[in-house]
Amino acid sequence: MTTLRPFTCSDLLTYNNVNLDPLTETYNLGFYLTYLSRWPEYFYAAEAPSGKMMGYIMGKSEARQNNPRDWHGHVTAISVADEYRRLGLAAVLMKLLEDVSEQKKCYFVDLFVRVSNSVAFSMYKNLGYVVYRTITNYYTGPPDEDAYDMRKALSRDKEKLSEKPCNDPDFPIEAA
To answer: CB within 8 A of 8, min separation 6: which ones?
Structure first.
């Protein structure tokens, strides 16, 4: 039986099997520790009965200044070890992050996914995410690659305005 639990500092010593994937962004330890200290409620691990890490999700809540309707949850990273894929674990982790975002009264959840990552793109679409915009050369290469900025409206966004596609090329990538 899989255990879903808050991610801990010691997990940083056991997550290599999850991050050994060319589509998973691996960050420096300070980056993970910053998320763990600032947004611990958005950082979860999935653990096998053997104690082996199966996957994790890391995120945050944020908004641009002067736009309260931009208050949202953000999926910074989600990854599942190869041997545990296709079991629905990523969907369970996404639901955890969406639930935290609902509790924080966010309007939507967003994430970035490589245009070439068709498996992840299909999963997000099946979970109700829509393409908000495409960001040119978001991922650095070689080769550089575009990303889809995908969003899913939460209950606070009753009109689903957050899912309306953005065609403004100058729209900021990150919340300020």
So the answer is: 36, 45
